[in-house]
Amino acid sequence: MANKVATRTFRARILNHSQVRDDLDSLGFAASKLWNVGRWTAQRVWDACGQIPGANALTAYLKKHERYADLHSQSSQRVLQELGEAFTSWVGKRENGDTKANPPGYRKRNGDHPRSTVTFKQAGFKHDAANNRLRLSKGKNLKDGWSDFVLCEYEVIGPPETAIENVQQVRAVYEHGEWRLHVVCQVEIDSPDAPGDDVAGIDLGICNVAAVSFGDESLLYPGGALKENEYYFAKKKAKCDDSSSREATRLDRKRTGRRTHFLHTLSKAIVEECIERGVEMIVVGDLASIREDDENGEPRNWGDHGNLDLHGWAFDRFTSMLTYKAEERGIEVELVSERDTSKSCSACGRSADSQRVERGLYVCEECGLVANADSNGAENIRQKVLPNPQQDRDNGWLAQPAVRLFDRSEGRFAPREQVMNREP
To answer: What is the pLDDT of residues 311-322, one digit of tens each?
Structure first.
């Protein structure tokens, strides 16, 4: 049993909410106004030269703007970083064929500014752990005096013995009609010894959210249930007269809840399979390059549905869930580049686009390997961390991976045979 430092986010209620609500409202409105100033500035630059300024350029340009001083400087920086990330996401969607994607809009509804999330970094808060208090900084424009601040008394949402220490960041989030605190901390966890010394590889995708290779066995986790939810709620929301209406907000909240449950269940199921097989390390294909251009300099084409669905999958969120669940069981998680893993043979190493015959089927022209394409990719990812990957073993398991389906009636993953037999 070893101690390990991990990052965790705790949600907390504000016990003196009536006393600090007005101050937090002012900060939330200020964050929306700064976002709008940044959005207007980005539009002017975009119209003038066809380029969208990044977060650093916006921050440098707006540092002396009156709205920038409504928040603590680090909080203002974070607002403009979020705007930059939103533009980057939009550009990525357009490059991958989503012609319906819209650029980030202004934060204003029916003439009113919504309460935006306000982030406080190290210099923007002080933590009194003994009395469960967080002191949050205001910008100079919103201070009544040089020592004015927002003092929040909090209670952690969770087990009563949960203590918040080593706070790295605080976010004030307006949820369901009241302010809550999301507190990011570094905590020491007891990390048990790994259940074995084997390695598992995971290939993340769209049709199969995850394909897992253990070197002598492969598991597929289809994303059909998740995609059905996404399409269902998208259609329901399209029927709403106003995308910011109460009904649209309720649908968004419900869709997010179902997506979160699916990803939590998926990551838990994979970790349990790894424990059963004595896995010491899980290697996950890093999708950071998924929006990169192809060899000809053109945006990668993932197919009509793939291009539209690509940005709907919460890859980073899943990886984060998998990592902390695995760490708690003594299993290490490592990200590796997945470049060429989809077109290389895991048996002989030959690489060619033509070997991926069709979706789901991989046939090697060199050694004759026939495999499920996602399982072959997962095995290539697994082999990236092995010092001497074995190439001359029986690969029949790659062609017939076991399938785990999401069982809606029980809210868990189970072998396909069990789920199909249960359905009417």
So the answer is: 445 677 889 889
